[in-house]
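Hi C.,

You asked whether I'd gotten around to modeling the 353-residue construct. I have! Everything is below, sequence then structure, no commentary in between.
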Amino acid sequence: MSKAPVVYKRKLPGKAKRGFGLLNATGQRLWLGPDHLLVINTLYFKERYKRFYFTDIQALTITRTTAGMILNVVFAILASLFGIWGAAAYFTLGWDPVAAIFLGIIAVCILLGLALNSLFGPTCRCFMYTPVHCEELFCLGRLWTARRVARDLRAIAEAAQSGTPDPTDMDKLANRQSSVQRQTPGLAAATTASRAAQELRHDDGKIHSSLFYLLLVDAVMSVSLLLWPDFLPAPVSMGFVALLIFVTVAAVIRQKRSDLPRNVRNVTWTIFAYLCLLVFFMYIFTVLSEFGRTLGEDEPPALEGLQTILVKVINSISLVFDLLLSFIGLRYLADFRRRSAAYEEPAAAPPEE
């Protein structure tokens, strides 16, 4: 009589590869079985399967590494080199503007890679220990993903080793933990508070509010430049954009592992992407301006008209995005602060009779 096929209930998160997949094409995925963890290692068209029973898992270790930070440094150096190379080579050697714009596109793409690597979080190495084996779970190469998976696997392994049937049934496991918390007064509150303190920290959003108000100031500057093109010199505008980028990066770093709501985080990342595009268009405008200056009297009228149109387009887009993102961000931040204040406000004492 044939055995019933094993049903794997869910795939665990984690898609990291060794060396960021640059020099090694080996992949790894984790699946939860009824009584074991299935580790699948893939290399092109080959697959290797390993089973680790929950009753045999003794430990899961997570070690934070500096690989992600080193990659960010490499991205930053490459982006700076391409940007400076394109600008300096064009201004000093008189390159064609197409070549300078091409180098600027490469720099922006590298900056996007830096932003994505920062968004994925710090890197780590994760190992699983059994009585006779040590397996590296390199697919859990990001710290936040590794912690989440390790927390689930720990709960499942503890349930299996304590004799709980069907330990991969997360609903039964949650009900079991809830019943234990109900039987122990104060345990649920203590557990929730300790997890919240361990995973998230409170952020009042001061840096984010500064960013949103700076966007309003930038909107006023965009209106002024639309009405009076020579109202502000170019160094002032570029310096203010640099200030916006600095505050945005600070807000992105600050909101990591904080209790700020997802909508505020999304608005901050949208501002970051918008500023990257704004810098790119400003770079194109600078290249075209310098190219027209080198031509002198031979500058074609079409090039001058293109610069004028590009300035108006940049200022109009800046005005719309500044107003939209600032008002949305301030609204979301005000709602978050109001909920936080209501949550922290102590309950009123009952009146004495």
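If it helps when you're writing up: The radius of gyration is 27 Å.

Thanks,
B.
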